[in-house]
Amino acid sequence: VQLVESGGGLVQPGGSLRLSCAASGFTFSSYTMSWYRQAPGKERELVAIISSAGGWRNYADSVKGRFTISRDNTKNTVSLQMKSLTPEDTAVYYCNVKRGVDYWGQGTQVTVSS
Asked: What SS3 string covers 30-99?
């Protein structure tokens, strides 16, 4: 299993970013995929989750209405569109799949600052 995140960076408050995760080594279309984040000094938290076919999605209360998770099962990718970013969104963002155990990517840093 390999998960490779990209798209992080520095953005001003109110700005937008789109994160992507390229997955390989498993049957991507059969698995629920998630995005987590971990801010300095805090525990890793679930941000968004999408079912295997993309028909069901759920979000942490803190990002509802601002973040959108999507997937492309033809390209084995899962994305996180983030808008109206605030400094509280600053964290390392991780792609996740659960296949008996948790698999994680290396993470991508998102920094929201003026």
From this structure: HCCEEEEEECCCCCCEEEEEECCCCCCEEECCCCCCCEEEEEECCCCEEEEEECCCCHHHCEEEEEEEEE
Q: Is the Cβ–Cβ distance between 12 and 70 less than 8 Å?
A: no
> What CA–CA distance (Å, rounded) separates 93 from 73?
21
Calpha distance 30→67 (Å, rounded): 23
How far is residue 16's CA from residue 44's CA, in Å, rounded to a whole number? 22
Each residue of 42-65: pLDDT tens digit? 999 999 999 999 999 999 999 999
